Amino acid sequence: MFLQRNNKHLAAFGRSLLKNKNRQLANKLVLSKRTLLTSTKKQQQQKNNFKFKTASITTSIAALLVLTSYYNSSNITNEPSKKGLRTISLDEFKKHSSPDDCWVIINGIIYDLTNFIAKHPGGPDIIKANSGKDVSALFNPIHASDLIDKYIMKKDIKGIIDPNCDFPKELITKALSPGETPESMAFKEKLRQNLPSIDELKTIFDFEYICSKILPKNAWYYYSSGSEDEFSLRENHNAYHRVQFRPRVLVNVKDVDTSCTILGEKHEVPFYVSATALAALGYEGGEVSIAEGCAQGSFKIPQMISTLSSKTLAEISEAKDKFGGQDQWFQLYVNTDRSKALDLIKEAEAKKCKAIFITVDAPSLGRREKDVKLKAKPSRENGISKGLSSFIDPSLDWEDVKYLKKQTSLPVFLKGIQRKEDALTAVENGFNIVISNHGGRQLDHTVSPLETLTEVVPLLKEKGYKPGENVEVFIDGGVRRGTDILKAIALGATGVGLGRPILYSNSAYGAKGVEKCKDMLREEIAMNMRLLGVNKLSELNESFVDTQGLKYRSVRLSNDFLNEEVYEPRNIIEWDMALEAGDDDS
Ligand code: HEM
Ligand SMILES: Cc1cc2nc3c(=O)[nH]c(=O)nc-3n(C[C@H](O)[C@H](O)[C@H](O)COP(=O)(O)O)c2cc1C
């Protein structure tokens, strides 16, 4: 209780500093918090244990979280300039605080979002609930700084809020995730500052476990959830367990070579980073630190950049250049407004992306129920799918993708192929393909990508195509082990993507985590190549795997504890929140 009160006083002190525009002092406090935490981290890592520092650190963290969000918000780039904008009084701003007439403040600038609410890719509810508020703390960590420029019309930039007004604190939205309290966040922050040394991590599942403990609920649920019953989420990985190896013996495997050729160029390993939206939800460096992790270390891996990244393409591309560059590819969600899709392709070309991946499995957002329940309030309509489908065109068809392909000289992939018939049509029309079900986040109960691969490759070969020579056949979904990658390669995949493992390693340890993740996978690949009796990946073929069990999906049903895995009644979440929140934080 004492700590809680103390937090409140510090938080109030922080807010009053800001109100008095004494930002320098506020920023110093943030920096001293960082120094304090960095030294704490070092000491703890030296000791190599999980003991926590004294409670006073918790106090500082909780109170200063408020300040940090302001500190971050003052470093934003690519936003509309404040120059020439008229100053708007608090009284005038307050008149536009309903969903029908919705003004918000982001980093001091007032926007009229009334017409944008229904189109918001993150769903209309979140903006409706924050009409008439300063949403900077909520907006900044998860939106790329050029999004406003791209999607908000000039006429909807109304002006700047009067800097001399006494802005009411109840109109400032907190960055707090639903389901979290300042105390629960302070504890997670404490865990984050006392992570196990990265050398203690032995498999990439370790990153996932750590993230389940340190990520705010909104990030953890957004990343970890699959759609509906999460059958596909589990099946994606389980399918790999139903394929067994048939190793060769008495082969000299002193030197094994994990390299391969992708899109005509040599790569040290056959895996890459799949596009994932909102990487900054889990780690402030977001896609920029993923880019650094891909580029750093003894070898590089390609990074596919999502249309919905939380950093700008310019920032992500610049991060890659800092370390001598790895391949970057651009994932495209085709906007209802086609000119936006064309602009994105041109931007990707200008930033030297080497391929375009058009996502074709998301005409509507899959219903990820854990995520939906966390955010939804009983009285509000859940409009996330509606919001996203106005951003991603649900009418996209074969003619559209053929048209888009003609607009670029880059290789174009269709990402999200889930049946052999579509694979053949795609390849016949000059596309490369990614066999994927979006990591089990779209249609639930789809056949696993690995199983689809075993149907696609023989059909393509029968029609005279040669994966790796005249077409690329990538796969993603459920890949967690070097052996998973080897199985996919043996079955004809020419590149293997990882989504969540990269998000988790980045969220826990930033670029170093991504680097560690790729090292672990390469080591597993090399070790298992020796055990398989192959020196080069090109030696792998179907004879090295037994896929007889792959089709027998039903045998797993008895082990499927569906309710325990997926079901979270909403009222329990709210009960939990109320208990954790304790008394009023005002
Ligand atoms: C100013 C114009 C805005 C633009 C262009 C914009 C754009 C976007 C985009 C592209 C996403 C990613 C969607 C996804 O991957 O699922 C997103 C998500 C999100 N946005 Fe915005 N947004 C805007 C304003 C706002 C405002 C004012 C708020 C808060 C009041 C907000 C809160 C959110 C949240 C919480 C998410 C995450 C949704 C989720 O996790 O499912 N946005 N937004
Ligand atoms: C949190 C999250 C966000 C994602 N965002 C995108 C996206 O913006 N565009 C896209 O094409 N795929 C997206 N995907 C799908 C991934 O590209 C990939 O297909 C999937 O993560 C592979 O499964 P895995 O996570 O089991 O490795 C996302 C996946 C996750 C988990």
Structure overview:
It is a single chain. The protein has 586 residues and is an alpha/beta fold. It has 24 helices and 17 strands. The chain has an eight-stranded parallel beta sheet. A five-stranded mixed beta sheet has the order 1-5-4-3-2. Strands 6-17 form a two-stranded antiparallel sheet. The chain starts with a helix and ends in a 5-residue tail after the last helix. Mean pLDDT is 80; it is low at 1-77 and 377-389. The structure holds protoporphyrin IX containing FE and flavin mononucleotide. Protoporphyrin IX containing FE binds next to helix 5, helix 6 and helix 7.
Write the layout of secondary structure elements.
Layout: H1 2-19, H2 23-47, H3 55-73, E1 87-88, H4 90-94, E2 97-98, E3 101-106, E4 109-112, H5 124-128, H6 136-139, H7 147-151, E5 157-161, H8 182-193, H9 205-214, H10 217-224, H11 231-241, E6 244-245, E7 260-262, E8 265-267, E9 271-273, H12 286-295, E10 303-305, H13 313-322, E11 328-332, H14 338-350, E12 356-359, H15 369-375, H16 384-391, H17 398-406, E13 412-417, H18 420-428, E14 432-435, H19 449-462, E15 473-476, H20 482-490, E16 495-498, H21 500-509, H22 511-532, E17 545-546, H23 562-566, H24 570-581
Helix pairs in contact: 1-3, 2-3, 3-8, 9-21, 10-15, 12-13, 12-21, 12-22, 18-19, 20-22, 21-22
Bound molecules: protoporphyrin IX containing FE and flavin mononucleotide.
EC number: 1.1.2.3
GO cellular component, one term: mitochondrial intermembrane space
Domain FMN hydroxy acid dehydrogenase: 196-550
